[in-house]
Structures are given as structure tokens and as C-alpha cells.
């Protein structure tokens, strides 16, 4: 009883913190150890090339398997990692791990890696990418970095300079979540992205709004004219797939083909999707 009171009274002297801030702090402490404790894991989701009629790439998606909380969504912990700067060591691990895993895949399959704006603006990204390629022996052309439009809100010049220096390493650059938020077409003219990834919100709308199909057509026409590929993200059914194919979209990513899977399941998935296309 007395012991319990003692513990309770201890809390009394802590600075006032609301429950949310406290929870964030706890998660931050845990995230700090997550990398060292081996709680971070990459899952891989296939991108299916419609003209090739096979899987052409996988996107690496970060997973945090927390010992108590279970799987924590990247939508929750990536922002925290960005605020605390932990995204730099975590992002480094992601790049190295993604290159390492992809190096064991067939040569025609690329690996796409998400790069946070914080990571992108840091001075170490180039050397981390270079090191990831060197250690794994992965052909630079098989590595695709996914960045978002938010990088163009301010300091367009610096963003373009960084993109060009990444390009000199031989890696590809894709614009993720294209069409959301801060769209301006001027940066498409300024930098030759290898690919536009059409945001899932446009795909969700495909069956509900006629206008959504026109938007897809406009994006694929624009991308074609600029020599860029297109990937539609979040494709969940064959109706969406049919529309996207008809509108000239190059690649399909989404639960329709597969959810993100652990590295150990990739070979089996490739075999299965290969069989499906031979049967089709
Ligand atoms: P993103 O890069 O746009 O990745 C696509 C997200 O859509 C993934 O969510 C994926 O699991 C989900 N998705 C794929 N197909 C479907 C579908 O058919 N339906 C639905 N409803 N969702 C689908 P996830 O894995 O939760 O990742 C969320 C976001 O977290 C990513 O969005 C990316 O911005 C960020 N992220 C993930 N891994 C990393 C990483 O290694 N580094 C950084 N900086 N960000 C990451
Ligand atoms: Mg992405
Ligand atoms: Mg995306
Ligand atoms: Mg997205």
C-alpha cells in the first residue's frame, strides 16, 4: 500500500504533460531503439507492368513491429521520425536493406524506395545511396527513389540541384502521390522524372466520377509527352485496372495484385503472378 502511494506521488512532481504528448514521447523513446532492436522490417509490394505483362518492380514499405503495440503504421511513425531526426539513420537502413534484398532478384526487377523530404534535404543522401549500391552490387538503374511534391514548395533551386546530383549516380527518380497537395506543372518541365505515381485518391474515384478517367488520361498523355512512365497506386479491382489500361497507364500497384509482403515471400509471389499471366 505504502509502496503504491510512493509510486503514485512520484508522478505528482513530473511536469504537466497531456496524455497525447506523453504517448508521443513514449513512442519516440521506443523508435529510438527500434532500429537497434531489429524491430524495423521492409515489406515489398509489386508494380505490374501492363505492356511487359509482368512484375517490373517492387516498392519497399517500412514496417515497425513494436513488441507491445504490434505493427505500427508508417503514417504514424514516419512523421515522428522526421520531427526527431531519426529518419536519417532509419532512412539509411531502408536504402541499404532495400538494395541488399533487391540485388538477389532477377535483373529486370527494380526496387523503389521512399525518401522523406527531411532525408532528401540532408547532405548525406548521395553518399548513403552510393554506399547502398556499392555494398549490394545493385545496378543503379534498378534503384528508383520516390520523392513527393512537397519538396517543391520552397527552395525549388536546391531541390533541382539535389535531383540532378542524384541522377548523376545513375539512379531513377519517381514523383510519388502525384496530383495531391502542391501540384504545379512547372517543376515537371524543370526536371525529367523517370516516373509519375498517380495518387490513390484518383484511382478510388475512377468508378464514381466520370471526370476521374479524364484526369488519368490527361496525366498519362502529359507523362508520355515528357518521356515519363506512369504507375497507378492503390488499384484494388479489375474495373479500375481496365480503365487504367485503356487510358494508357504503364504500371499498376495495389491490393488487386498483392499487398506488401515480407522479403521471404517475393519469389513465390513472382512465380504465382507469372503463372497467372500465362494462364490469362
Ligand atoms: P506511399 O509511398 O504512397 O505508399 C503506398 C501506400 O499505399 C502504402 O501504405 C501501401 O501499403 C498502400 N497501398 C498499396 N496498395 C493499396 C491498395 O490497393 N489500397 C490501399 N488502401 N492502400 C494501398 P503504407 O505501407 O502504410 O505506407 C504509407 C506511407 O508511408 C507511404 O505512402 C510512404 O509515404 C510512407 N513510407 C512507407 N515506407 C517508407 C519508408 O521507408 N521511408 C519513408 N520516408 N516513407 C515511407
Ligand atoms: Mg511511395
Ligand atoms: Mg505513393
Ligand atoms: Mg500514397
Automatic annotation (TrEMBL):
The keyword Secreted does not apply. The keyword Nucleus does not apply. Residues 24-274 form the EAL domain. Keywords: Membrane, Transmembrane, Transmembrane helix. This is EAL domain-containing protein. The lineage of its organism: Bacteria, Pseudomonadati, Pseudomonadota, Alphaproteobacteria, Sphingomonadales. The chain holds residues 494 to 773 of 773 of the full protein.
